[in-house]
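Reviewers asked in the last cycle whether our approach scales beyond single polypeptides. To address this, we selected a multi-component target totalling 384 residues and predicted its structure end to end. The input consisted of the following lines:
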Amino acid sequence: MGRWQPGARERLEQAALDLFLEQGFTETTVPQITARAGLTTRTFFRHFADKREVLFAGEELVPERVARLMAEAPPSLGPMELITEGLAPNAAKIFAGRSLDYLLRRRAVIDAEPALHERELRKFALMSKALEQGFRDRGVDDLTAQLAAEIAVTTFRIAVTRWLNQHGDPDLPATINQTLAAMRHLTNTSSA
Amino acid sequence: MGRWQPGARERLEQAALDLFLEQGFTETTVPQITARAGLTTRTFFRHFADKREVLFAGEELVPERVARLMAEAPPSLGPMELITEGLAPNAAKIFAGRSLDYLLRRRAVIDAEPALHERELRKFALMSKALEQGFRDRGVDDLTAQLAAEIAVTTFRIAVTRWLNQHGDPDLPATINQTLAAMRHLTNTSSA
DNA sequence: TCAGTAATGGCACGTCGTGTCATCACTATG
DNA sequence: CATAGTGATGACACGACGTGCCATTACTGA
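The resulting structure, written as structure tokens, was:
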């Protein structure tokens, strides 16, 4: 691998996040980001497919990690059991290497820009697809696999939001288990 | 209101959908759409915020309709009861005036273009926000309101997908109730 | 020393989306 | 019938986004 100044990708991510916080996502141009990172515009688009993607780098390898974790789980576990037992202890791995401060700053930027929220929803959708395939590989029927995947991702997403809103006060696994408990309570209330 | 050739918005929607099917979303330019509709490029962006929005017009008034329906429901119903009893009979109203053929063609275009999938996810997120507020207005606590809203939207989304995949064979309310039954069965399986 | 590879720089280009002003069609009022 | 007002459209310029293409630079291995 060739080397100029190492860490071009990381410099671009840092410069972009800072500028987005300083002056907003729309008001920040790609040339501004690359200038701060000491690179050129063309290089930015070699590292990230588009301007939004600079905040979601590395998430493309989440699906395979999800698939591996699900394949390693005991085959006896049903889909809801797998979520209850596996979600909390493994969820934090997604944010490995990302500080709470970084996550909070990133959250502020995404919440301020609908276009970034769109991209985030797509990332969750990809995660859901990976979970769905994992459930199917465990012998779960299509509809149940899809529902279980959506429930897992929804629980994860809501728990992360609440966790960040509380500045990480109860840790993420605890928040996930609280959210799961509320989900069980809600869906177990009798109907009509 | 001034009038030239009436139905400019509808002509643009029709021309856009046709062109997206013929040559793809990315390959279709806005000038091509407006030329087929007998208008100019600038006029397109007066009717739709961006190129994607031409496939999602009119959905911005869904939230208020959702809020009204939820306010009219008996206050005694809990959130899960409201979903079970209210989702199926009211869900079809969202597609009022849209033929099954239109929905299928629209589905094909969206499925072929990730950028359009992103926009669709955002629309569902807005629907979820409206449902969440509706639950809170009925006295439901924040977390439960959020979970119930997500469950309702997820069920609706999965049911619509299945319904369209079967070319509308069982009608939408029946498909929704089947999906809801599967959801209840999944979440009621004991854990650990 | 020289060839090969990988990341970057530089440039042209099409498309998107917006700001601005002029123009056209219709309406209301006298 | 005349005239002013209103709302939709046309026309143009412009900045930003994102891509294709080729040259250049730095590192690697023979």
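The CA atoms of residues 181 and 187 of chain A lie 10 Å apart. We regard this as preliminary and will revisit it once experimental data from Aim 1 are available.
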